[in-house]
Amino acid sequence: MSQLTHKEIRLIRTDAVIIGAGPVGLFAVFELGLLNLQAHVIDVLAKPGGQCAEFYPEKPIYDIPGLPACTGQELTDNLMRQIRPFDPVFHFSTSAERIEPLPNGHWRLFTDDGQVFEAPSIVVAAGGGSFTPKKPPIPGLATYEGKAVHYAVRRIESLRGQRLVISGGGDSALDWTLALHTVAERVTLVHRRADFRAAPDSVRRMFALAERGEIDFKLGEITGVTGDGTALSAVTVSNDQGSTQVACEALLPFYGLTMKIGPIEGFGLELRGGRIAVDTERFESNRPGVFAIGDINDYPGKLKLILSGFHEAALMAQQAFRRARPDQKLLFQYTTTSTRLKEKLETT
Ligand code: FAD
User: Fold this and answer.
1) Which DSSP symbol is given to 233?
2) Domains and CATH numbers, the chain
3) Distance separating alpha carbons of residues 41 and 55, to the nearest angstrom
4) Quick check: 264 and 129 in contact, CB under 8 A?
5) pLDDT in tens, 196-254
6) Cα separation of 88 and 43, whole Å?
7) pLDDT score recorded for residue 2
8) Among the atoms of ligand 1, which is closest to the Cα of residue 111?
9) Contact 141, 149 (CB under 8 A)
């Protein structure tokens, strides 16, 4: 696998350009590769993995078929290993900005660093687009961001032995409360209500820990932070009864993510609820040759799950083959029985 520097090539011709190196974009490389199609992958982030690597690298995922449990980072690493035989070319820290149709039915794609791609197919696997955490309106919070205030846990070990305040009522807040209470000196979960958006089983386990005195749960909202501008010493929790100080070294607010579709909004694709409308046969948008797979698409019954995106990638690849090799017959082959594929994949 290679990573080109921006200035090496200006116009790149390939079979498919994939926007997004999240789990679905990565698996699309594999499905295209099985059909002998070459892919270039563009991602605005500096590394592969999308949400898995960015938001939950150390959190286990349990619903990837055949993998009883793997963390977001392990899944990313495995996908990178799985696609290595197909030699995809990655363009990290690069944003896909604009597309335009060519007279031959192919597409031209422009990036923010001046690269131009030409391909019969564009595969939009941009997930939630550029995702940013929702930040609570607490005075002075910004000063501590990245030092004592974290919107994602990149490395569990960096929080070992600290007193942590986690706030929020969704899956991230509950999952991290459960995961970090054995690592931290003390975890205090703060939520403004006693009912949660998180999975009921996580909520039940959190309350069980609180009853055993292994964590603290406080009803209220965080209204202030105290510290020296770098290190945090306490947060203020306020509710109907008044305000209290909770001593801590780190605050982890999990108030959800803002998913912004970003430049893709201007691609001229039909959007439904901010996502790209596709058919369920080819996962193609209203513009022939522009596909959308993974979290970025919408169709009746859509589930935003990694496994759904993997299925979508397989069907997309069939149509991408027809576009890239219009005079070749599409042969359906199992990886277990095709000699060509076996030879290629045995290098994994
Ligand atoms: P993403 O992972 O969002 O990747 C999209 C990539 O596209 C990003 O890297 C982004 O930078 C890039 N991009 C966007 N716009 C551009 C652009 N214009 N130019 C270049 N690059 C661009 N799913 C499960 O199946 N099981 C789970 O247990 C599970 N747990 C989760 C836990 C949490 C905390 C979260 C947040 C999500 C979880 N999910 C889970 C959902 C899962 O992570 C997503 O369904 C999955 O990441 C979608 O993959 P994707 O490749 O479509 O998009």
Assistant:
1) E
2) 2-131+258-346 (3.50.50.60), 135-255 (3.50.50.60)
3) 20
4) yes
5) 988 899 999 999 999 999 999 999 999 999 999 999 999 999 999 999 999 999 999 99
6) 13
7) 53
8) 19
9) yes
If 0-12 CB within 10 Å is exposed, 13-18 middle and 19+ buried, where does residue 137 land? exposed
Strands (E), 142-256: 163-167, 186-191, 216-219, 221-227, 232-239, 242-247, 250-253
Model pLDDT for residues 158-212, shown as the tens digit of each residue: 999 999 999 999 988 999 999 999 999 999 999 999 999 888 999 999 999 999 9
Atom of ligand 1 lying closest to residue 52 CA:
43
pTM for the structure as a whole: 0.74
Kindly list the protein residues whose Cβ atom lies closer than 6 A to any atom of ligand 1.
19-25, 42-45, 50-52, 55-56, 61, 63, 95-96, 125-130, 172, 262-264, 294-295, 304-307, 309
Residues in the chain, total: 348
What is the CB neighbour count within 10 angstroms for residue 279?
Answer: 14
